[in-house]
Amino acid sequence: MLNKFTTKIVSLSTLNNYSFIIPTYQRPYVWGEEQIKKLLDDVLLSFTTNKESIYYISTFLTKEVGDKAELIDGQQRFTTLWLIALVLSEMTSNNSEISTFLKKGDELRLSFEIRDEIKNYLKALLKKESTSKFLNEHFIKKHPYLENIAEALSTIKGYFLQLSEDYNLNEFGNYIYTNVKLIKNTTPTNTDLNKLFTTINSAGIQLEQTDIIKARLLNLIKDEKIKFSRIWESCENMNNYFERNVRQAFPNWKSFNFKKPFDFNDNLFQHNEDVIVTNPKDIFSIDDLLEHDYETVNINTDIKSNQTEEINENEVYCRSIINFSQLLLHIYRIHLFKEGKTDFSEEFHSKNCIAIFNEMIKRNNTEEIKRFFKLLWKVRFVFDIYIIKWVTNIENKTEQLELMNINSNTDGYYSRTKYEPSSNLMLQSMLYFTGDYLRQYWLTPYLNYLLQDFDNVAPTNNSHLEYLEKMDNIISTRGGKSEKELSFEYLKTNEFTQQRLDIEYFNMHLGTGFKHYWFQKLEYILWKNWKDREEKNFKNYRITSRNSVEHIYPQNPENRIQHPEIENKHLHCFGNLVLLSVAQNSEYSNKSVSVKKSMFGEKKHTYDTLKSFYIFQSNQWTPKEIEEHKSEMINLLKMHYEKTFF
User: Fold this and answer.
1) What is the pLDDT of residue 372?
2) What is the pLDDT of residues 293-321, one digit of tens each?
3) Residue 412, φ and ψ in degrees, nearest 5
4) DSSP assignment, residue 205?
5) Most buried of 200, 248, 331, 539 (most Cβ within 10 A)?
6) What is the 3-state secondary structure (H, E, C) of 75-138?
7) Alpha-carbon dihedral sign for residues 56, 58, 59, 62
8) Which of 185, 253, 177 is nearest to 14 (CA)?
């Protein structure tokens, strides 16, 4: 009988003896496109860097009886891996080794306790029973547990369709099967699972790599440790506005003017060292702590402000598009550039933070470290003012990307309001949704540019938009180098030249193989050049996450008489395609053009896509209209790129 926890490093290929059960007390599958793409982007980067490399993905916790393993923790990621295996199995005709992970004998490898609708849905997918009632759109919508899984599958399919042009999916599937590693923790047989599950979900935050970096850098500063610690603490909470962080770290925050960026000023930012700790060096001994087996490590200290904050029930809450470790890596790249050094060679990833900062720690230059801390302050300030963020609508609990204005009242308190939608908001949204969620390389050169224009605080400023457009146009047309290389080189803007847009690409008939970037880029261009800017649906329109290519003239129409077969050069051309969200694509399915057109304008507060608007202006949709629309869209792209050609 197992009477202690055991831990093993495993891969999907080593789990063939197990079948996994997700118990009833687990929440439903909730991963969305952002989490799935982050996972796939990460694994893909490891695969493309070195196909022999090992990538560690996560831990999961099981209770095992024989060959049955109950998933106590880690089910979201584990379920996603099973769905990835399902899609790759289908797209590689079961040639990839990962296909063997789908079943154990005749049964599903993964099952959901008392969720028969999920089991039946997944079995129907495996058997490719297209007419099964379990795959019916109405059946899926009746079961909320299924909707998220169906959307996840569509997201994964869209991702791999984009990869299939440039990568061998068999090899990638084999890599995930054998080289992606998980840490499998197994509970003792007599464990109280309810108590354990409650403990897991109420556990505190563990020590982050950024905490370790902070401690090591502060160890090398010979004086003013508390001041620089406060600077760091003002910057690290990315899910709050900068002024809120600062007024917690510095008690006399009412004397600051947060409406205009400024360098850190010792005269303004007074700090009382006694507020933090009696013996400051106690919090900077992380290197010593790491050498010992302590149960817990906590180097964070509460900072209490002497001011009482007013409570504003209309307070606007936000969430950053990147986390603090990602911001640190962008800032460190800017720091290296300003110090006349080359970019770090390691992979741009939060897991490598300590390794990346080790070079600066080895240099052991106190003044350089202080310059980095002050740069951190400035970049965090401009990031808060100029970069889009997720803003929560308290009423309906939804989030939307916004640029936020900062306002002050006579009492010295600050509030936030949304700017009107602008080209800058739309372009940043486009870059965010088409870029690598884990890296967002465009931020390195853009943040550096904003530092040079430090006194201009209007996020909608035309010069900022021109810079961002030019940067995006240049990077999107230059092949042969990675985004990481290009984004660092672009810090030296005078050394860059733009390549011409490859028009022939848009004349191909690639169907779902067209890069999603170009659909989203076109949405930005259409938005920027829209004529009736007061029209309600347009005013509500935003560039959002979309990753599902839809044929307007259907590939497999419900009514073949109404839609006779057309040549692939028309069916799969750029003119007949739009990029939709998973839900929108499912809604349109193989319906006729006339039905899609009626659905497009029916009881919707905004447009699915602006490209769709142009398509549905046509009275009919034949190869002639498809080619005319394609030419019109190509011309808009061409004119946009020619404006910034230099």
Assistant:
1) 97
2) 323 223 232 333 333 334 344 456 788 99
3) 85, 10
4) P
5) 331
6) HHHHHHHHHHHHHHHHHCCCCCHHHHHCEECCEECEEECCCHHHHHHHHHHHHCCCCCHHHCHH
7) negative
8) 177
**Which residue reads 């949204």 in tokens?**
429
The Cα-based distances of 223 to 217, 229, 232 in angstroms read 12, 11, 15
Q: Which residues pair with 393 in a beta bridge?
A: 398
What confidence score (pLDDT) does residue 7 get?
85
SS3 annotation, 525-554: HHHHCCCCCCCHHHHCCCCCCCCEEEECCC
Do 330 and 338 form a contact (C-beta atoms < 8 A)? no
Query: Looking at residue 585, what is its pLDDT?
Result: 67
Q: Are strands 107-108 and 103-104 parallel, antiparallel or unpaired?
A: antiparallel
* Structure confidence at residue 459 (pLDDT): 63
Please give the biggest Cα pair distance in the chain: 83
d(CA 579, CA 551): 9
Read off the pLDDT of residues 366-423 as tens digits, 9 standing for 90 and up.
Answer: 999 999 999 999 999 999 989 999 998 766 667 899 998 887 765 666 778 888 999 9
Instruction: Using the structure block, give the residue that is written with the tokens 């302050």.
Output: 377
Which tokens in the block code for residue 268? 């303004």
Tell me what percent of the chain is helix, strand and coil, each rounded to the nearest 5: 50, 10, 40
For CA atoms 504, 506, 512, 513, give the dihedral sign.
Answer: positive
pLDDT of residue 458: 61
The residues facing 60 across adjacent strands are 184
- Among 544, 254, 538, 260, smallest CA distance to 405 is for 260
Query: What is the number of alpha carbons within 13 Å of residue 345 lying toward its C-beta?
Result: 2
Average pLDDT over residues 355-360: 94
Specify which residues 70 forms β-bridges with: 21, 63
Helix (H) or strand (E) holding 423, with range, is helix 423-434
Q: What is the DSSP letter of 509?
A: -
Tell me the per-residue pLDDT of 75-129, one tens digit each, with 9 for 90 and over: 888 899 999 999 999 898 888 899 999 988 888 888 887 577 888 888 888 887 7
Give helix 209-219 / helix 366-386 axis angle, nearest 10°: 140
Alpha carbon of residue 522 to chain centroid: 21
C-alpha span between 229 and 238 (Å, rounded) = 16
Q: Beta strand 389-393 with 318-319: parallel, antiparallel or unpaired?
A: antiparallel
Amino acid letter for position 506: F
List Cβ neighbours of 547 (8 Å cut-off, separation of 6 or more).
33, 37, 155, 158, 159, 516, 579, 581, 582
Which whole-number Å values give the CA distances from 606 to 7, 53, 311, 449, 543, in the listed order? 51, 46, 34, 34, 11
Range scoring the smallest mean pLDDT among 284-298, 350-364, 434-448: 284-298
Q: What is the pTM of this model?
A: 0.77
Task: Give the burial class of 270: count Cβ atoms within 10 A of its Cβ; 0-12 exposed, 13-18 middle, 19 or more buried.
Answer: exposed
CB atoms within 10 A of CB 394: 11
Contacts of 357 (CB under 8 A, 6+ apart): 213, 216, 217, 328, 332
Are 221 and 369 contacting, i.e. CB atoms less than 8 angstroms apart? yes
Given a cut of 50, whether residue 193 has pLDDT beyond it is yes
Find out whether 541 and 527 touch, Cβ atoms under 8 Å.
yes
Res 518: pLDDT:
97
* pLDDT: which is higher, 53 or 623: 623
Residues near 410 by beta carbon (within 8 Å), at least 6 away in sequence:
none
Q: How far is CA 413 from CA 110, 303, 455, 602, in A?
A: 53, 19, 22, 44
How confident is the model at residue 639, as a pLDDT? 94
